[in-house]
Each structure stands twice: as C-alpha cells, then as structure tokens.
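hey so i finally got around to running the thing on that chain from the lab meeting. sorry it took forever, my laptop kept dying and i had to restart like 3 times. anyway pasting the input first so we r on the same page abt which one it is
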Amino acid sequence: FYQPHMPIKACGFQLFEGQWVGAMLTPWMLELMVLPGPDQQWQRRQVGTRLALTFPAGDMAFRVGELTPELHYVACSLMSPLDPHLSAEQAITLAENSVSLALSLPVRRDAPVNMSRRALLRGKVA
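ok and heres what got predicted. didnt touch it at all, straight out
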C-alpha cells in the first residue's frame, strides 16, 4: 500500500476556468485536485460530499476535502493504491499527463461518425 520510494509532489497545477487544477502524488495515491483560484471563495460544503465536475475530457466524480476550515478543495482519486511497479519518475510523469489529459480538448460523443475506409479516403468522415 505505502510506496516509500514515492515522493509527495504537487504536479502540473495550472489555472483552468479561474481555479487551480493539478494532481497530488503521495506514496499511497494519485489524485486530480481542484482548489480555489486567485480571489476565489467557494461555497462551504460538507467534507466528503460528492460532486460531479465537467472537464474537457469528460465528467469526473470528486469529493470535497478541507485543508483549513476556510480552504476547501475537491479531489478525484486516479490511482489508490499506487501500482507497486511504478518508479517515482514514472509516477510524476503519470501525474502530469493526467492533468494534461483532463484539460485536453473535448471529444464529441454525440456526432455521427462514418469510419469506413472509403469515406475516410474521400474525405467524408462525419
């Protein structure tokens, strides 16, 4: 469960829609986190409450956590426990790539797609 070679590291944090989004890596788990951005104050929610947030990559389920009574965050578990075969470097790369993936361009799921080779070669993939 506990991977002593794994660092505690905040990875890939960046502002997204006014909030800080990044990943937290610890010796026991990897989570995607959202924290209030500059000059943001979130509505107070009970710790443990579940929220669904929509990211460009899709909908994700988060739980409310608390750093201080005035500072809450939401986190989505990506890997718990960590794969014991991951090196520290691989885990950091995974954490950074997870943030990039969550914030990547959306995929339209409702668009009809004609994946036949003939349509692709004629430029009629739609």
